[in-house]
UniProtKB/TrEMBL annotation:
Belongs to the trans-sulfuration enzymes family. One of its GO terms (biological process) is transsulfuration. Keywords: Aminotransferase, Pyridoxal phosphate, Transferase. It comes from the Bacteria. Its cofactor is pyridoxal 5'-phosphate. PANTHER family: HERCYNYLCYSTEINE SULFOXIDE LYASE, L-CYSTEINE DESULFHYDRASE. It comes from Kribbella sindirgiensis. Transmembrane segments: none annotated. The keyword Transferase applies. This is Aminotransferase class V-fold PLP-dependent enzyme. GO terms for molecular function: pyridoxal phosphate binding; transaminase activity.
Length: 380
C-alpha cells in the first residue's frame, strides 16, 4: 500500500549523503544539485572579476527578487530580500513605534530568536513582553480568543504562521483582523510558510517574513520580508550601506556592500526544481508520507503522534517516552547522528517531549522505518 511513497522519492536531485537518514528538512533545508551548480558558476564568475561582479550585481538581484515576490504572489514594491526570518522580524521591530509602557505580545510557540528580539527591543524602549499561552490542541477560534485577551495596551503582536517547535498552523487571516480591529500592528513570522502555504504573505499583515531555504529548498540565507504600504518608507535594512537613501524600499535592502549575493541570485533555480517536481501534487503526497512515517515511529517507541490542531503539510510531532532526558541540550541529537546516522530534531512544549519529523521529495517511507528500527534501543 506504500509502494507509491517509495517510487516518488527523488534523492537524485540532491547531493545529500545516501548513508544518512535526513529527516529534519525543517531546520536548515537542503539545496538541490542544480541550484548548487548555479551557485558554483556564479561564485566562479564573481572571483574571476570581482569589480565587474559588483558593478553588475544589482540587475541580477532585481530579477531574482521579482521572481521570489511572484512566487509568494505579493506586491514586489513591498518585498525585500533578507538573510532569514529572524532578520525580517528584527527589521519590523526596528520600524514600529514601541512606546514605553506598551506591550510586545507573542505566544509561547514563538521561535527562540524571535523572542530574544522582542526582549531586546522591549528592554531598549521600556516596554514589556507578554506571552499568550496556546495549547497545541487549540482550534482556530480558541487561538484567536487567547491572543485577543492579551492585546490590551499592545504596540505590536508577533505570531507564527507555522510554529517551528510545535508544527502547528495558526489562523493568520483571523489574527490579522483581530489585531487590526484593536489598532495593533501585527508581524507574521512565516519562516516555514513558503511552499507549504499558497500565497502565504497575502493576509494583510503589517510585516510578513519567511524563509526560502526551508521548503522551497533555496540556498541558505535567503528569505523575504513583505511590508505593508504605510510602513515602507520607514523600513530600513539592518546594515547601513550605499543604498541608504534609495527611496524604493526593496532596493534599499538589496545592496549591502560586499555581502554574498550568490544565494539570493540562485534561489529561483530551486523554485524551478519544485515546479518540475509538480509541487502542488507532491505536497499532499508528502503529507501522507510524513503521517505514515510518524505512525511507524510512534508504534516503535510505544507512544503516539501528537494531536496538533492544523498541522502543516510536511511536519509531524511524535511523542517521546517520558523516560527520555532532553536536559543535555544537543547531546542526544548528536548521539542519534553518530550512532544511527540519522538527522532528527527534538523539541518540547508544556512539559511534553517530541521528535519533529519532516518530509521532502528526497524522503521515502524506508527512511522512517530505518529510524524506527534503531531509535528505541538507543533511547532505552
Amino acid at each position: 500500500m506504500y509502494r507509491w511513497l517509495v517510487l516518488s522519492s527523488r534523492p537524485d536531485l540532491w547531493t545529500l549523503d545516501p548513508d544518512v537518514l535526513h529527516l529534519n528538512h525543517g531546520s536548515y533545508g537542503a539545496v538541490p544539485r542544480r541550484t548548487q551548480e548555479v551557485m558554483a558558476g556564479l561564485r566562479a564568475e564573481m572571483d574571476a572579476n570581482p569589480m565587474v561582479w559588483f558593478r553588475t550585481v544589482a540587475g541580477r538581484l532585481t530579477a531574482s527578487r521579482l521572481a521570489l515576490a511572484a512566487y509568494l504572489e505579493t506586491d514586489p514594491d513591498g518585498f525585500a530580500l533578507v538573510p532569514n526570518a529572524s532578520a525580517g522580524v528584527t527589521v519590523a521591530l526596528q520600524t514600529l513605534p514601541i512606546p514605553a509602557g506598551s506591550r510586545i505580545v507573542l505566544t509561547d510557540h514563538a521561535y527562540g530568536a524571535v523572542r530574544y528580539a522582542a526582549e531586546r527591543f522591549a528592554k531598549a524602549r521600556g516596554a514589556e513582553v507578554v506571552i499568550a499561552e496556546i495549547p497545541i490542541e487549540a482550534d482556530d477560534e480558541t487561538v484567536v480568543a487567547l491572543i485577543a485577551d492579551r492585546l490590551a495596551g499592545a504596540s505590536v503582536l508577533i505570531v507564527d504562521q507555522i510554529t517551528s517547535g510545535t508544527a502547528k498552523v495558526f489562523p493568520i487571516d483571523a489574527l490579522v483582523a483581530t489585531a487590526h480591529d484593536r489598532g495593533v500592528p501585527i508581524v507574521v513570522d512565516g519562516a516555514h510558510a513558503p511552499a507549504l502555504i499558497d500565497a502565504p504573505a497575502s493576509a494583510g499583515a503589517d510585516f510578513w517574513t519567511g524563509n526560502f531555504h526551508k521548503w522551497p529548498a533555496a540556498p541558505r540565507a535567503t528569505a523575504g520580508l513583505v511590508v505593508a504600504e504605510p510602513w515602507r518608507t520607514a523600513s530600513m535594512p539592518l546594515i547601513v550601506s550605499w543604498s541608504e537613501y534609495d527611496e524604493r524600499m526593496p532596493e534599499r535592502f538589496d545592496m549591502l556592500g560586499t555581502y554574498d549575493y550568490v544565494p539570493w541570485i540562485a534561489a529561483p533555480e530551486s523554485l524551478r526544481v519544485l515546479a518540475e517536481l509538480d509541487w502542488p501534487t507532491r505536497r499532499p503526497q508528502l503529507t501522507t508520507l510524513v503521517e505514515e512515517g510518524a505512525k511507524v515511529l510512534a508504534k516503535a517507541l510505544g507512544t503516539g503522534v501528537a494531536e496538533v490542531a492544523h498541522p502543516p503539510a510536511t511536519m509531524r510531532l511524535v511523542e517521546l517516552p517520558s523516560s527520555v532526558d532532553l536536559s543535555g541540550g544537543d547531546a542526544l541529537k548528536l548521539r542519534v547522528s553518530r550512532e544511527l546516522k540519522a538527522e532528527i530534531t527534538f523539541t518540547g512544549f508544556d512539559e511534553r517531549k517530541f521528535i519533529r519529523l519532516s518530509a521532502h521529495a528526497y524522503n521515502s517511507l524506508a527512511d522512517y522505518e530505518k529510524l524506527s528500527a534503531g531509535l528505541p534501543k538507543l533511547l532505552a
